[in-house]
Amino acid sequence: xxxxxxxxxxxxxxxxxxxxxxxxxxxxxxxxxxxxxxxxxxxxxxxxxxxxxxxxxxxxxxxxxxxxxxxxxxxxxxxxxxxxxxxxxxxxxxxxxxxxxxxxxxxxxxxxxxxxxxxxxxxxxxxxxxxxxxxxxxxxxxxxxxxxxxxxxxxxxxxxxxxxxxxxxxxxxxxxxxxxxxxxxxxxxxxxxxxxxxxxxxxxxxxxxxxxxxxxxxxxxxxxxxxxxxxxxxxxxxxxxxxxxxxxxxxxxxxxxxxxxxxxxxxxxxxxxxxxxxxxxxxxxxxxxxxxxxxxxxxxxxxxxxxxxxxxxxxxxxxxxxxxxxxxxxxxxxxxxxxxxxxxxxxxxxxxxxxxxxxxxxxxxxxxxxxxxxxxxxxxxxxxxxxxxxxxxxxxxxxxxxxxxxxxxxxxxxxxxxxxxxxxxxxxxxxxxxxxxxxxxxxxxxxxxxxxxxxxxxxxxxxxxxxxxxxxxxxxxxxxxxxxxxxxxxxxxxxxxxxxxxxxxxxxxxxxxxxxxxxxxxxxxxxxxxxxxxxxxxxxxxxxxxxxxxxxxxxxxxxxxxxxxxxxxxxxxxxxxxxxxxxxxxxxxxxxxxxxxxxxxxxxxxxxxxxxxxxxxxxxxxxxxxxxxxxxxxxxxxxxxxxxxxxxxxxxxxxxxxxxxxxxxxxxxxxxxxxxxx
Length: 678
Description:
The chain is an alpha/beta fold. It folds into 5 domains: about 5-95, Ubiquitin-like (UB roll); about 105-185 and about 510-560, Orthogonal Bundle (Fumarate Reductase Iron-sulfur Protein, Chain B, domain 2); about 195-290 and about 435-500, FAD/NAD(P)-binding domain, CATH 3.50.50.60; about 290-435, FAD/NAD(P)-binding domain (3-Layer(bba) Sandwich), CATH 3.50.50.60; about 595-675, Alpha-Beta Plaits.
């Protein structure tokens, strides 16, 4: 066969006479994106994604149909080509009605595939569930116990009755897998010879260590505390997170080859500069370990302590003497941990002082409810005005009575003092749990923002030092929840990996299609109440630090997992449309307008067809006609209202559709789904 020489993207390529540009490029290992092309059917050229630019030819060519010619010079990624592809993809996505990813996953800061692992749990496969979880999160048993689960606030099951118990299912599967004979262990890439230092062994540092190790890099974690775990160990009480569980998960990370060095204080035991000299890249994940000041007169008195400082002494097994009457200032989960720990240490009167009402409290409802069950008294709409002491120790808290004014930037109504109205509360200890700040001693070379927090680029996580990256509570926005730090660390690991390979590629949030769903749209779903986590009684649990949750039974967990509505697209990981959409930075919203009518059609017997996901590429029609030789599918209507419809005219045709399924296998978007129950 005659060979033709041409150049594609600067590389000389040999092609067969009669080959298309698409075929020639593919044979040379050059990918040209396409949606409507399939090797089993004739060229159609409908999608316009495969356009390329040929030297000397004024118009763009469709690579699927354009034939190669001697001396042809092709550019598959020129500015003009990219612009044309972006427009084509934006037009397609602007009319695409579907969920690429379930809303629970979109609301998870780490982007865990909640739908995927819940389905695995429903099927009884906890090992597979953990494998899916650990694509994003290496500490599922720990995080499942303590995460405030923002995923659940976006769960569509709440439009039926109650959201899925996503976090508890996570730790159910993780516990089962961890205690099995063959717990999940990731495949580790071949050694790159590169070394990464991670300063900080909390959730962010451990996460980055996990993913960088999986990528083949040698990782060493330096941590100032005697044991790894950061705030998971020293900021969260044992009754919420047993440290034996955390230890097991840390051991799993260490087993990947991660070296862990504890009781190493930067600036004292080793300098930051020494670490940088010994490693190819450094990640700073030091957290926020200093309690914020309440700026209240008398806070220097003995007996006034920070929330994190108090919880750390409890975690270390050396709790401070708090006396019988304790006041905790704050309304977050740290305040709840502090007041409930005070109860367990024997305080007879424990108060929570919060300047707003319960409705504005950021702590989880379950934490507030369980604290109340354990005897904690909540003093809402009060705020410390002064700590009054006797012989140098706090004795009384003078409380300013508050009322709610207008909403502030967070959307919560701002508390306003009621002039001249005060209350007095006798106490032995005040625990101020109003927030945390970063201690940057030892890291003087790093640039800080105007809040005194390490400044790191939003997309590369790079600091002012080119080989130093930073994530988590110590950076930019300050202290947040553990899953947020974990999400950042995962993304940073990808960036650091690219940096070690010679090209620091920034993280870009992928585009996904989303749709609005109402309760009316789910009105046909059977109501199945959320599984309730069994807990130890308040009277029993408030006297010790043993875990309060008793865990789901096998039956409870499997049935709860089966409540999942499976909102995300089943074909997301293999969808050509979303793959190409994220190859380029697209903005479909600039073409926002009337969309095609979306509906789900099940008359294809073994196939479910989602009109909202259909891009009218006609692949299914052509495969049915040219490959299956049945012609069951066809384009119906003209112009904007064109749709693909089946024509079942005899029993033989229906039977053919039942066993064929070739159209679904060829579909590039997940518009056609093979029904597994057939």
